[in-house]
Amino acid sequence: MSYEGYLKEFLEISNIDVGDKIRVTKPEIEHEGMLLEKPDYSNENTLIIKLSSGYNIGIDVKDAKIEKLSEGKKPKIELDPIDKQISEDKDNLSILSTGGTVASVIDYKTGAVHPAFTADDLLRATPELVDHANIKAKAIFNILSENMNPEYWKKTAEAIYDEINDGADGVIIAHGTDTMHYTASALSFMIDSPVPIVLTGAQRSSDRPSSDAFTNLMASVVAAKSDIAEVTICMHSSEDDPTCALHRATRARKMHTSRRDTFQSINMNPLATIENNQIHINDAEVPYTKRGEKELSLNNTLADKVALVKMYPGIDPEIID
Q1: Is residue 47 located within the same domain as residue 99?
Q2: Is 136 among the catalytic positions?
Q3: How far is CA 78 from CA 85, 105, 108, 243, in A?
Q4: Do 268 and 123 reside in the same domain of the chain?
Q5: Domain that holds residue 134
Q6: Is residue 101 annotated as part of the catalytic site, yes or no?
Q7: Predicted model pTM
Q8: Which of 101, 156, 183, 262 is catalytic?
Q9: Residue 221 CB neighbour total at 10 angstroms
Q10: Which one from 254, 261, 262, 289 is the annotated catalytic residue?
Q11: Digit-coded pLDDT (tens) for 174-194
Q12: How many domains does the chain have?
């Protein structure tokens, strides 16, 4: 069971397990539904249930009465083995997750979601990847991107360093989009790399027809195999086409909450565009660091007592003092 602390102890004493039908009663509110696994990033006092309407909700158990109505069956998913097609002729790429998952296994009968981040899960969701590279994937931690801070930047930089030191020909970072440009910029100052480091994400989840997750991931694989050995962000370049843009980390910015082409290069053109698994490098317009030009090095010493203050007419000088 994924629940922890007091809630885990209570459920065990009450003989309640994932899959059971329960009733949760709080002042002026009552819900009945099937108990689901708790996502790693949710509050430890939150109970996740699936309502008869099909919706999944989280309930804070503070001041709540929890009753077991009937025993259910814990969802179990059996996965077929896959052929990873490891080849010495293909590049070795590492994909690191910092939060959420690129691939999740879903039981559509119960609505239970089983997040995981292994090479097998990734290749089941995007089997085309094996045509382009040998994929090694793992989660380094699992947080919402708005909770990113310098300590997580350090851990990410260390994980990237280890992967490259172990022989990765390129590294892809799966990251939430809200603070991706901050992480990318920080990494560009912390790591000198002889290989590409590419951050990517999705504006729309993979269960939506308009999802950009697959296109962004495939384009990131192409970018990670390229000659551009810099920290970059790879995301859609427009709302309605399959082209992705590769932005230099220190020049990229998120410009919109939900548009697929939210990331833009500021005061310069993108380093490259990627379409149909082909990369078109704008080297005539934008010089870049080439693969193998730099030696691998890590400097993850950061000062976190730093504030970003935007100037405006009438600003009080004491804010800076």
Answers
A1: no
A2: no
A3: 21, 10, 13, 35
A4: yes
A5: 91-298
A6: yes
A7: 0.74
A8: 101
A9: 27
A10: 254
A11: 988 889 999 999 999 999 999
A12: 2
